[in-house]
Specification:
The complex is a heterodimer of chains A (634) and B (144). With 634 residues, chain A is of the alpha/beta class. Chain A is 57% helix and 8% strand.
Chain lengths: 634, 144
């Protein structure tokens, strides 16, 4: 990398004596240019996810450690190919860069991230960004890839052509960051930005922009690298007409087998640790009521939810690996024809896949779908995909009711098969609903599908680790607030009203009364009144049912000497009722966060109400049928 | 002027110097290759995968594996055409089909250094220049 001689280093304005102002640096770049990797490198754990007011596009903001001590905040903007405000993503990027975004001052500088292995095409974005006139550092990412594949570029010369400083970096390895930090520090030589040698093109004209980019690249002695051989080789396996779909199925099965069998020992350890902790705290409590609150209410309630953290993290880890490695785009390609059959387009596939982790980010991810009707259809079916919150009730019921018999040798056990069946059930419900919607209220012409296939890359431990930390925070926050509160409320209501200063038997408590009141409605599904309480509390979030049942059976178990929630359930619920409960969870929309995000995305209460009614109605009918079928035939 | 190391692609040692004159008419309609070691080039051109120009193909769907064509125009609604142009499908660029989903739809197309998957009905409306018998095909679409 040559030093920047002669060319100006346009930087942030030089620091004033006491520079306490927040400096905003916008990170802009096309999709797959490594923006997020760079952002993660710069900010590490000092970042948080935020929403712009009035729009649904999430952005992340984080503090960058800069030597001069000034406050620099980086904003990671959505990936765009141009600054024409057509989709919501582009509008956000456009508005932020022009300082038209409420609550966010106009950025002081821009980091324009381009993929150096595909520079000629990515430089097209440089034209509109540079014409904004903000101090801009052009960051050419993937320097290691470029060098390995025999490409190169003259950084100084390219900078002269563009009239902006250029840095060649590898965000995944952290190479070349000194130049970025120097730029952010607004350091020593703050010369005015030089006029570009190449006149910027008319930015609306893509062919002209592309020709300009080609010229700039040539003058900057850009040498394109050889094609990515490994990607081609891997694609000939992963997109093989026969092997490709087989691998696709194998990957999906392996992920679920892994989260189901590998996570179990970890979950047991977490669960043991929590009950030990609850007992330890309980033993120092002065009176019986407090001890019961800690051990039965909190330990069993919150603890039974917390133990699912390893499993949920493992799911996010696998989705992260699939996404970061580039396989997810291939999976979307393989699945597109199936999606098309149900009236959806390929772009719906990626939100739907991430809905396996959580419907909330998935619904936000639908904003890349330009067709409004396709987008609403995708939003409406996303909550059918088996999100990680369903994992805890599923696991609880499967371990309690399904024997650990092998089905296909070591590869597939009966329990895994049931779990996969539940995933499939949600998926089929989503597809059928999509079909229904797209052939009636949301009818539209077949839309186009254009998906860029990124080269395969090794996922970095850093970015995977940050995802997991992020996810743990969300999960623990929920366990510490909603689930904790529900556990306390349930425990208190289960101990009231006091008769002669003593708590009643749980059947006669307030919880019992409410449970018995709803029991007639859920009896046909094979559920008892305790499940009824669980269903009510799980309207807040699905996994709350596990905590609630943990608390209820914990209180009951304290008097009845029963061991463990699973055993208690086995004694208290028929197989028909258990399977019906799983089916109910597969379909019902028990998640307030999802309802809220759907309302925000679709701009009103109409769609979330339709969705909630439809899903819960479907859950009720199907659970009823399943319970009847099992009771009659088994 | 572009210098490129063709070892990886052609499987022989030595560097070729290729002068690419572009942008004469509306971007990249004409690509003239002035190749120092023309003979080697001819001898090895067969080894270049996905680069045999098919002058008969009229749209992307007619390109077979190992063939390439030059994009002429996009017969699509403006919105879709713009998206595709942003992804690299600009008139004058060489396009090569790559792998596809099972059943051949959608298919990946290599254009301007990237790989983009398109459905059959979209690919059919990307029209190629046909009837041109180019002596030399742009070797790599990634070259600007």
């Amino acid at each position: 990398m040559s030093d920047c001689h002669g060319c100006s280093v346009a930087t942030l304005p030089p620091p004033r004596a006491v520079d306490t102002r927040r400096h905003i640096v916008a990170i802009v770049g096309p999709p797959n240019s490594g923006k997020s990797t760079l952002f993660n490198r710069l900010t590490g754990l000092r970042q948080k996810v935020a929403n712009f007011p009035g729009v649904t596009v999430e952005h992340r903001m984080g503090k960058v450690k800069v030597e001069s001590g000034r406050e620099v905040f980086a904003v990671d903007l959505p990936g765009v190919y141009s600054l024409e405000p057509r989709t919501e993503d582009e509008r956000v990027t456009h508005d932020v860069l022009l300082g038209q975004m409420k609550d966010l001052p106009k950025p002081d500088a821009v980091l324009l991230i381009l993929d150096s292995t595909n520079l000629a095409r990515h430089l097209v974005l440089a034209a509109p960004v540079l014409s904004l006139g903000l101090p801009t550092l052009v960051v050419l990412n993937m320097a290691d890839d470029l060098a390995r594949r025999g490409g190169g570029v003259d950084v100084a010369e390219l900078g002269m052509q563009l009239g902006a400083p250029v840095a060649l970096v590898s965000a995944s390895r952290g190479q070349g960051f000194d130049k970025i930090l120097q730029f952010l520090a607004g350091a020593t030589h703050a010369a005015p930005q030089a006029a570009p040698l190449m006149q910027l093109p008319v930015i609306q004209d893509i062919p002209k922009c592309r020709a300009w980019a080609a010229n700039v690249g040539t003058k900057g002695k850009y040498q394109a690298p050889a094609p990515p051989h490994w990607t081609r080789r891997l694609d000939s396996i992963f997109l093989h007409p026969v092997a490709g779909p087989l691998i696709f199925i194998l990957v999906v099965v392996a992920v679920f087998q892994a989260i189901f069998s590998w996570a179990t020992p970890l979950m047991d350890q977490v669960s043991t640790a929590i009950s030990w902790l609850a007992d330890a705290i309980g033993s120092v409590m002065p009176n019986d009521a407090l001890r019961s609150l800690v051990v039965d209410g909190l330990g069993k309630g919150v603890g039974s939810v917390l133990q699912f953290l390893p499993q949920i993290l493992m799911l996010f880890l696998f989705i992260g690996i699939l996404e970061d490695s580039g396989y997810l785009a291939r999976a979307a390609l393989i699945a597109d024809r199936t999606m098309a059959r149900f009236g959806l387009q390929g772009k719906s596939f990626i939100p739907l896949l991430s809905a396996y982790a959580c419907a909330v980010p998935a619904i936000m991810a639908t904003r890349t779908i330009e067709n409004k009707r396709d987008r609403i259809a995708t939003i409406l079916i996303a909550p059918f995909m088996t999100c990680s919150a369903r994992l805890s009730p599923y696991t609880l019921l499967i371990v309690a009711f399904i024997p650990p018999k092998p089905l296909l040798g070591v590869f597939l056990s009966l329990r895994t098969a049931v779990m996969l069946g539940l995933y499939l059930l949600g998926f089929l419900a989503a597809l059928l609903t999509a079909r229904l919607l797209k052939s009636t209220v949301l009818k539209s012409t077949r839309s186009s599908f254009m998906l860029e296939m990124p080269p395969y890359r090794w996922p970095t431990a850093r970015s995977l680790g940050l995802r997991l930390v992020d996810r743990s925070k969300v999960f623990l926050r929920r366990a510490g607030t909603v689930i904790l509160a529900v556990a306390i409320v349930i425990w208190v209501l289960a101990h009231l009203p006091l008769t002669d200063g003593k708590p009643p038997a749980i059947e006669h408590s307030f919880v019992g009364m409410v449970g018995h009141a709803v029991e007639p409605a859920i009896k046909p599904l094979g559920f008892n009144w305790k499940i009824g309480i669980g269903l009510i509390t799980s309207l807040a979030a699905r996994e709350v049912i596990v905590g609630t049942l943990g608390t209820i059976y914990g209180i009951e178990g304290a008097t009845k000497e029963s061991a463990g929630l699973q055993q208690a359930l086995r004694q208290d619920l028929t197989l028909g009722g258990a399977v019906a409960l799983m089916v109910f969870f597969a379909f019902a929309m028990q998640c307030m966060s999802t309802v809220a995000v759907v309302k925000r995305e679709t701009g009103g209460w109409r769609w979330p109400i339709i969705q909630f009614t439809y899903m819960t109605g479907m859950a009720y009918v199907c659970a009823f049928l399943v319970n009847k079928a099992i009771t009659v035939w088994l | 002027m572009l210098r490129m190391d063709l070892r990886d692609r052609l499987g022989f040692e030595g560097q070729l110097q290729v002068d690419v004159v572009m942008g004469l008419f509306q971007g990249f309609d004409i690509a003239v290759f002035q190749i120092d070691t023309w003979f080697d080039m001819q001898a090895n051109v067969k080894k270049v995968r996905h680069a045999t120009h098919n002058p008969e193909a009229t749209n992307l769907m007619e390109l077979k594996h190992g063939e390439s064509g030059i994009l002429d125009r996009l017969d699509l609604p403006e919105e879709d055409a713009r998206r595709l142009m942003e992804l690299g499908f600009l008139p004058g660029h060489a396009i090569t089909p790559g792998h596809s989903a099972p059943g051949g739809d959608p298919r990946v197309f290599r254009v301007d250094g990237s790989e983009v998957a398109l459905r059959r009905e979209t690919a059919r409306r990307l029209l190629l220049k046909h009837g041109q018998h180019l002596d030399a095909t742009p070797i790599d679409t990634r070259k600007a």
